[in-house]
Amino acid sequence: MAELITIDDPDDPRLTDYTGLTDVELRRRREPAEGLFIAEGEKVIRRAGEAGYAMRSMLLSAKWIDTMGDVIEESTAPVYTIDPKLAERVTGYHVHRGALASMQRKPLPTAGALLAGARRVAVMESVNDHTNIGAIFRSAAALGMDAVLLSPDCADPLYRRSVKVSMGAVFSVPYARLETWPKGLDAVREAGFTLLALTPDEKARTLDECAPHTMERVALMLGAEGDGLSRQALAAADEWVRIPMSHGVDSLNVGAAAAVAFYAVATGRPQL
After folding, report:
1. Do 145 and 239 belong together in one domain?
2. In CATH, what number is assigned to the domain containing residue 257?
3. Is residue 272 a part of any domain in this protein?
4. Domain total in the chain
5. What angle do CA 260, 263, 265 make, to 5 degrees?
């Protein structure tokens, strides 16, 4: 059983994993380098544990001890109990869900290892908004995508905001980083995938016309909010595809567009 430790000093070195959680640049540097990430809220903490991530420690307000009792019982990691106002001083924000856990990262698989066992893959280029990363992973999990590949400059899926928005779906869908871009896409094609670039360009075929759900292996490429896929990425694709728009709308948010396209790729429309 985990040891319960009450802490009343915001500078206690045992709380180092939780300091400055709102400092995005600091956390981007620290967390991968130190091999940790932060899970926030009961459901996310439980899903991280179920996915095999080891807990380093947990930070709770007193009222959450009973709720997390079974997790505490099964864990050997220390559990720090802290006053909510003190927790805000440590983390930099009000912890609405009352529970945080520092989790140990696992080594990422190689892109080749993921591709070997996949048929439907999402490929993200330069998606740096953590909310969009989380939303895309949640849709990928819900709609049956097998894996996610990230360009070298994509944001960290295990950043606290990404994990929270995904409701822990980042633990369900395996992902890897391509070491080079767009050269790394060659390995995707060589693995037998058709590279489909999602773009609002009118020269692209609609998803219905393309019928990606009938293809044996599909890699759907998604670009960052606003800019979309780069010219280099578009040139590397086998085909351009688009979602038809109405009422003068030119495009969807990348998170919404991903959900629509994942449905078309992984599930398809019922045959009439």
Report:
1. yes
2. 3.40.1280.10
3. no
4. 2
5. 110
Based on the domain organization, do 45 and 71 belong to the same domain?
Answer: yes
Reduced 3-state DSSP string for 104-145 = ECCCCCCHHHHHHCCCEEEEECCCCCHHHHHHHHHHHHHCCC
pLDDT at 268 over 70: no
**Nearest 10 degrees: Cα torsion 204, 210, 216, 218:** 30
Q: Residue 147 — pLDDT band, cuts 50, 70, 90?
A: very high
- What pLDDT does residue 272 have? 37
Same-domain status, 47 and 65:
yes
Residue 6 has pLDDT above 80, yes or no: yes
Burial 16-53 (b: 16+ CB within 10 A, else e): ebbbebeeeeebeeebeeeebbbbbbbebbbbbbeeeb
- Final residue of a domain: which of 84, 104, 124? 104
Q: What is the pTM of this model?
A: 0.92
Q: What range defines the domain where residue 58 resides? A: 4-104
Sheet with 99-104, edge to edge strand ranges = 4-6, 79-81, 55-60, 99-104, 36-40
135 close to 166: Cβ distance less than 8 angstroms = yes
Q: Same structural domain for residues 79 and 178?
A: no
pLDDT in tens, 246-259: 988 888 999 999 99
Distance, C-alpha 228 to centroid of its chain: 18
